Amino acid sequence: MSPQADWGALVQATIAELAAGTTTVGLYGSAHPHAAQALGKLTSLLGELLAGEEELAFVLLGEELFVQGRPFTRISRQAPALIRRLRRRGVEHVTFRRGVTAEELRSFLEELAAGEDAPVSAYPNIQVGRVELSESELGGPDAKEGGRRGRRLPTVRDRVSLVQECFEDVMAGRQLAVGDLERVTRSLGEALASDPDPVRHLAPWEGLERWFAVHAHNVAAVTMGLARLANVGTTACRDLGLAALVHDIGKLSHPRELQARETELAGDEIELLLDHPKVGLETLLASGQLPPVALIVVAEHHLNFNGTGYPRLGRPRRPHPAARIVTVADTFDVLFTARGARGLTTRESTVAWLTDRQGSMLDPGWSSALCEILQPPPAAQPPG
Questions:
Q1: pLDDT, tens only, 156-191
Q2: Boundaries of every domain in the chain
Q3: Confidence grade of residue 378 (pLDDT, cut at 50, 70, 90)
Q4: Is the dihedral of CA 333, 335, 341, 347 positive or negative?
Q5: I want to staple 324 with a disulfide (CB 3.0 to 4.6 A). Which of 8, 215, 363, 380 is the partner?
Q6: Is the pLDDT of residue 28 over 90?
Q7: What kind and span of H or E run contains 93?
Q8: pLDDT of res. 64
Q9: C-alpha–C-alpha distance, residues 316 and 318, integer Å
Q10: Contact 337/216 with Cβ under 8 angstroms?
Q11: pTM: predicted TM-score of the whole model, two decimal places
């Protein structure tokens, strides 16, 4: 067996013991011999895995469980049970660090098995939490400069052109230039600070060749504009913008001919389109430089507010809050930029379309906020 296969087998066994251990502790208590046996196996397995690396990260993204960036939902029979347990307790990531003790694991399993609403605690060698839109979770405001050319981006067209170059890199098999996309979000943040109306920062329709770049820019502009109006912090706002820029990156793997006919696809071609969140997630996991909210947005931006849409879920649930704001911005831009440029919709009909789908397809809060922005200002009253 290869070292990689051996590692994968150890991870699968660890997932199984986490699921079984939590169930056993919940049924019998942590002092029961069955629980002690499961705890001993789990301690031994983590000891083996952490002998070669400092920490082991379990991350829940949608219906997928990733360990060190590798998906295990489809190859581990016990993964769905662990996912359900983590989701019930509001846990989206667990990181075990080298030196984790049996006592820490015992306390962790006890809290994970508990039925009350108390949060699951973190320990010195076990970190747990949610992927939050907060300054503390997402890091400091000074993202690394990056960028292949270091040029300024004073105009909408400059920003779209840089996004286009980044996407062309991906289509050519090169790595995504995350630093360049971060520059785009900083430029958008500066533009929105001067004029908070995101609609005034939208790029116009430039044809199918540049549609993905235009669309990515516009979704980021609307997402960041809504977030700023809701007083989301600067760093979290930029991370949301970065997530919006890459939300459709899975479509870049489609042939150009298929991209050009996106709104006319049928049959098996539709399945390719429905699969782009999964493809996009795989693409971004390989880069290793993006904030967690970007991965979640890519995976869930076609999951409707009521749990329908895709990826198709066995048990409907609401998507992550970050995905919900991007979904509203994504839907709006397809209507306003793509269809509006062709004379197929107006600002008024766009507002009506968004309003009609609040609470079903779209988050009612973010959709209502965008509709308020889109409403024309009241006419000035003549002096009385």
A1: 889 999 999 999 988 888 888 888 899 899 999 999
A2: 3-130, 156-374
A3: low
A4: negative
A5: 363
A6: no
A7: strand 93-97
A8: 80
A9: 7
A10: no
A11: 0.66
The top-level CATH class assigned to 156-374 is mainly alpha
- Percent of the chain beyond pLDDT 90? 36
- Tell me the C-alpha distance between 374 and 198, whole Å: 10
Q: Is the peptide bond before 311 cis (omega within 30 degrees of 0)?
A: yes
18: left (phi over 0), alpha (psi -120 to 50) or beta: alpha
